Amino acid sequence: MLFNTLGFILFFIVILILYYAPLLGWKGKKIMLLIASYLFYGLWNPPLILLLWISTLVDWTAGNKLYKLSDKSKKRLWLLLSICVNLGFLGFFKYGEFLLNNFIEFVNLFGLEYVPPEFDIILPMGISFYTFQTMSYTIDMYRNRIKPAKTFLDFALYVTFFPQLVAGPIVRSDELIPQYYEPKKASQNQFVLGLLLLSIGLFEKTVFADSLFAPVSDRVFGTDGNLPAVDAWAGVLAFSGQIFFDFAGYSLCAIGIALALGFKLPDNFRYPYGAIGFSDLWGRWHITLSSWLRDYLYIPLGGNRGTLSRTYVNLMLTMLLGGLWHGAGWTFIFWGLLHGLYLIIERFLKDKVSIKSSNILLNIFLAFLTFQCVNITWVFFRAQNFEMAINLLGSMFFINEGEPLLWTSSLVFVFGFMMLVFAGHYAMRNKSLVGVIESSPRWFVTIVWGIMIFGLFIVQTTGKQFIYFQF
Amino acid sequence: MKYTNLLFALLIGFILLVGYELYFRSIDNPRYDDNEDLWADQRRRLDDLDEDDVVVIGSSRAHQDINIHLWDSLTGRRPLQLALPGSPPYPILEDIVDNSQYNGLLIIGVAPGLFFMPANHPQSLEVYQKSVDYYNKQTYAQKLNHILYKPFDHKLAYVNNEDYSLRSLLESIQFGNRDSVRGPLEWPHMIDVDEYRNSSMTDQFEVDTVLQNMQKNIWSMFANGPQYNYDSTREEAIDQYVRKIKIFKDRGGKVVFIRPTVTGIYYENRNMIPREKYWDELLKRTESRGYHFLDHEEIKDFDPPEWSHFNKKERDLFTQFLVRKLQEDGLIKD
């Protein structure tokens, strides 16, 4: 089920009624939320709920064993089982075809004509998100960092909680499970703020991402030929805006829905296009994934505790895996590689050059430079293949010339709007959306909210999928 | 934040929406979106049909030139309308033959420029995605959304994804395009569809020559644009129909092709895909009957307002003609 549909609005209203009506006790409410979460997922493809159940059962059992056992080798085996099941599903459903295609190309190098059986497997929605979430539970249990969930119901609801099930934020167990222990009821402020955040998130997704940016980026990335630089840049900037508003919009919806039920989910975006440098960027873009990769990959690899060259290797490995997490394709891996290179160069320069951070103009310049470097990486993220990506980069940097493609109005919309996005993100670097809402006059917030609700009614992009569902 | 903020925001949104709806009501009527879900609704009915039923596939002419409700009143059976405007019918024929047990009468509209495209042509693949593939992959969530969306769709004028979605409205804002960049096509509002996908030319379009000329300009632009080399895939295109129709007939199905009347640029360009090499060959190799407008005095001189699709009167006459011919030829019961 998608947040940006009438079906979800009806679903959520029913949930709110059942949740706040004095019909169920706290346990009953949690059971209702769990059933609703399975329904939310199952309305897309019912059989794939089985994967969720298996993942839940395996990690619940492994978690309890890891907590009780003291024998290190046995603990390691249980951890291995949990990781194998989770990564096994992920590997099979998400990377199976990619691995098979690469295997075919590899054996073809030796002149072997291998023709595999047809491989047509559905990618379970949000599998990368819930897999990482459940893995963090067992890994933390192995490290004795957390205690197991008190009941199976609490754990199952942690794995399946519908607001963040299919596209995050990736929540750690110690952030969410303890919230299930006591009855939760949103205060008036939380409830209304939650619905406001939901409206903003939906507005970002349907108005900005789907209506304003997607048509332009789809046209540019759907073109085989070369383009003039202005069209190529507009297409890339449009995708930059589309993916931000799509994903940040989803995260805001998730946070808002949870808040309206009285639960707090972590922030996932903090104005990333205002970042100065790449470590700053990864503290602002998909924060829950970055921190997952930091805690469960980068630090275990050694982090920055070893030599400088070892740190560089760790950074690169982490970002390559980050790229692969996003998609089963070499272009995604290359996207990760570029970000790895950026982080390495930044770290190298930080050790050599001192940049004063109090100089506003310099900061704006560095933020703009960071933003443009990020835009270059989006080319590989969005392009179907390397040839298309290289062609587009050639067009962006005046190496290729081609026929104009975009309408003048599209160019004006995209360049104008993305300038505002950059300026807005830079201005909001040290602020939060909730902080700005709470410090603004109520009448002003209410009017803007009313206009947004109107926008949501008229947009008519019924049921366009969120980009990150495929990851 | 207080509940009053929420209530006032909803009120503001609602008031703006009422104004918006009133504006669109002043310029247009509420109507159904002929979208993937509506097509899927009809496709779902296919499995309930029997050998006395009729299914229509093809392009916009098969969609717009037959009145399925009139047909119902004449024969007691309402045809299932699965034709898709702007689309080659092969992907839908393939779906009916391979994925259903239907063995009634299949009426296949032939708009040569679309009909004779091979299955791997991008336009065929696009049809497949927005019809058959969507139907096969339609989730319960999408079905639920469609059920909820449908009452608003035909009761509110502004609910019209194709013409009045924010995206379409933004696209309509145009200024000073570069020389080689063509602006978006301005399709006039030509037809209304109902929940059975029965279509009717609007009263306004039937009399408004400005709208008709807008449509003619679009057809002329298509005709003057780059043309597909049909001869390069003629055998392949005909073969694909021959194969599927043989399977369909082997299980008791009947097939008839129709080529409704065209005028203007479509009539002048009819020899770009010569009848002898394509239409006649198709009938011969599929061993099927066909009704070509040039062969029948009753419909030969019809005059579609924009060269390509009938007004309501001619649509009904064509429907009556078709029913009569099919009854005479024993393809449907009297």
From TrEMBL, chain A:
Parts of the chain that traverse the membrane: 6-26, 38-56, 76-93, 121-139, 151-171, 191-209, 243-263, 324-345, 360-381, 405-428, 440-459
Membrane-protein topology: Multi-pass membrane protein
Record's subcellular location: Cell membrane
Record-stated family: Belongs to the membrane-bound acyltransferase family.
Keyword Acyltransferase included in the entry's annotation: yes
This protein's record includes keyword Transmembrane helix: yes
Organism: Mangrovivirga halotolerans
InterPro entries per UniProt: Ac/AlaTfrase_AlgI/DltB (IPR024194), AlgI (IPR028362), MB_O-acyltransferase (IPR051085), MBOAT_fam (IPR004299)
Pfam families referenced in this protein's UniProt entry, alphabetically: MBOAT (PF03062)
Keyword tags: Acyltransferase, Cell membrane, Membrane, Transferase, Transmembrane, Transmembrane helix
Listed name of the protein: MBOAT family protein
Domain of life, per lineage: Bacteria
From TrEMBL, chain B:
Keywords, in A-Z order: Membrane, Transmembrane, Transmembrane helix
Transmembrane segments: 6-24
Protein name as annotated: SGNH/GDSL hydrolase family protein
Organism: Mangrovivirga halotolerans
